Amino acid sequence: MRMLDTSGLLNAGFALPAGINDTLTRLWFRGPATTAEGQHTDWVYIGIFWFCTAWFVLLMGLMFYWVIRYRRRPGTIAPASPNHSTKLEIVWTVVPTLCLVPMFIVGFQGYMHKMVAPGDAIELSVSAYKWNWDLEYPNGSQSRESTTIGSRPVPIFYMPADRPIKLRMNSRDVMHAFWVPDFRIKADIMPNRYTSVWFNTSLPADAATLGEAHGLNESSPMWGVPYSDHWVFCAEYCGNEHSEMAAVIRVVPEDKWNQWLGTIGTAGLSPIDLGKFIYQRKCASCHTIDGSKGTGPTWLNKWGYESKYTDGSTAIMDENSARESILVPAKKIVEGYSNQMTSFQGQIKDNELEAIFAYMKSLSDRGGN
């Protein structure tokens, strides 16, 4: 394997050779990488695959040849086997090492390129928690759109095409991992510290356009805009709903992204709509609104009704008990459930609590008007 100038390779947008390598890429990766850094990862992976394949064929061929050529024959005394050859041992140690050094250098260069973001990257903040993702944009807002992957809605994160994006990430509870298969990136996310990863992706020439099928109308700034979607998963087992912890990165032209960014604030939402938005982002992974049992109690007809707790006490769900459950969830556990909820102390504002109360009331026949 020849040495590569990785930075030049990435800047040139290196593409995999056509033919069988494309077939292998679709077989192993579901499709080609959508970033230059991901294409470099594919190139290194497939290069190592062919290197190992060539050596496997060579060694197995020699083995079969020697097994047949030097097999024990009737009437022939088996010769004594040599027990040591310094030259041979040096050769089979040095040659594989010389082959591994280029692999390490090329792979390490690609890894460092993925870890160090360009200076002009747009920085976004990602928070991971059981079992959802939050992303905060430079203006402090969050996307209000969602789609369904698996059994429940997951957030859609809009990103500009052809711009480096740096994600500053942390966890509110346990370890998670931010994994985007299409970008060939995966980064651990840990509590009490920040980690980061970056990417720069483009729109394909045949990109589809956003429309009514995506829940938009013609007044939306995203109506008719070309886009490409990329799945986000958690790659670190984090509990019961780990497999449902997903999101979608939706890449759109940068000018449309800038226009959209000015429309996603929550100032114009009613308390119920704001509460619904917060529920979808922070609460839907554990609490249902249709009466079915989730990781936590359902919100349907929860407000105004009595709850029994594991310590034997009871309480009517009102503003005080709801606030306590959100900020100090371990203090009282509803009977039939375990203590799995993370405290939102310092992570949710008073007006957001009021909005949650309003939404919970709208889901109960005892919630009033």
Give me the CATH fold name of the largest domain: Immunoglobulin-like
Please tell me what the overall shape is. elongated
Mean pLDDT score, rounded?
A: 84
Q: Which CATH first-tier class of the largest domain would you pick?
A: Mainly Beta
**Major β-sheet, in short?**
7 strands, mixed
Give an overview in words:
- The protein is of the alpha+beta class and 369 residues long.
- The chain has three domains: 6-71 and 84-115, no CATH class; 122-261, Immunoglobulin-like (Sandwich); 271-362, Cytochrome Bc1 Complex, Chain D, domain 2 (Orthogonal Bundle).
- Helix content is 33%, strand content 20%.
- The protein is built from eight helices and 13 strands.
- The protein has helices at 6-11, 20-29, 36-69, 86-115, 254-261, 271-283, 319-327, 350-362; strands at residues 122-129, 132-136, 146-149, 152-160, 165-171, 176-180, 185-189, 195-199, 208-209, 226-234, 246-252, 306-308, 314-316.
- Strands 3, 4, 6, 7, 9, 10 and 11 form a seven-stranded mixed beta sheet that branches. A four-stranded mixed beta sheet has the order 2-1-5-8, with no helix packed on it.
- Helix 3 packs antiparallel against helix 4.
- It starts with 5 loop residues before the first helix and ends in a 7-residue tail after the last helix.
Give the gist of this structure.
The chain is an alpha+beta fold and 369 residues long. The protein contains eight helices and 13 strands.
Indicate the topology.
Layout (H helix, E strand, L loop, with lengths): L5 H6 L8 H10 L6 H34 L16 H30 L6 E8 L2 E5 L9 E4 L2 E9 L4 E7 L4 E5 L4 E5 L5 E5 L8 E2 L16 E9 L11 E7 L1 H8 L9 H13 L22 E3 L5 E3 L2 H9 L22 H13 L7
Parallel strand pairs: 1-5, 4-11
Antiparallel strand pairs: 1-2, 3-4, 5-8, 6-7, 6-10, 9-10, 10-11, 12-13
